[in-house]
Amino acid sequence: MFGFFKRFTTPQKLREKGVLGMNARNFHVISKYNPRNLYPLVDDKVKTKNLALKSGVKTPNMIGVIEHQFQVKNILDMVKNHSEFVVKPSHGSGGKGVLVIKSYTENSFTLPSGRNITYNELYQHISNILSGLYSLGGRYDTALIEEVVHFSDVFKDYSYQGVPDVRIIVYKGYPIMAMTRLSTARSGGRANLHQGAVGVGLDIKTGKTKKAVQHNIPITHHPDTNADLRKIEVPMWREHLLIAAKAYEMTSLGYFGADIVLDAKKGPMMLELNARPGLAIQIANGSGLKKAMKKVDKKYPMNLSAEERINFILS
Questions:
Q1: Each residue's pLDDT tens digit, 6-54
Q2: Which helix (H) or strand (E) segment is 314 a member of?
């Protein structure tokens, strides 16, 4: 995972850079700041969405929930007032099992790629979600039906087919590191860094590019669109940070990742939260999380509101 760092530095320099490793993350950060009884608040997307709505955090609206097999046949009635919708597993991860329907009839459902699937294929997909095919640990799951996000065209030249998002790491209520994940042909249109998506580290104060990597190797241009990644500046950056900060009060987790998408009309919206965010964000930023956390511990005031914490960061 840290091959990029290892090629250009020594273990001592890694420590000096404050790079957080997997074991340290698990035993000294997550176990210390994320009580296990709070995990369901972010592992269950239905619970997370309901929390967000109660807390005033913008998130795609929920159309409905399918919990049992006998309810699957009601999918058309559930979405009858919506021209498009998204189906996703409540306990899924990494975008697995997410199905976006852009238009449909009673027997045919059109995907963003233009490919059509039948009613039976949609029925089977929802059944697979319920059986736990896409869930963490293979547990029986719930299918969440929600509104489609109409993504801003700000990033249209920076992503190949898939949807770009912003991942923000929050520590003790403060956003400390951020990146945007951009899909590529190699990643199959998914914003998954391990599958070949591009990770662009973002300056926490400005939302502007710090550096960009693909498979841990520094790059300057998107491999498919040739867009200059050094010119990225995420609009409405303060609103992105505020959503991440508010999720701290919403969940009481001391360390987590907030995934945020930019809707063309509604602005930044929280897509999901992660109590065990990956560490590749350090490679995308060229700096370590441990160093950023120490800065919070030593210099940042506690007991501030979300608004006050963001004002402090941006001051």
A1: 454 555 566 667 899 999 999 999 999 999 999 999 999 999 999 998 9
A2: helix 306-314
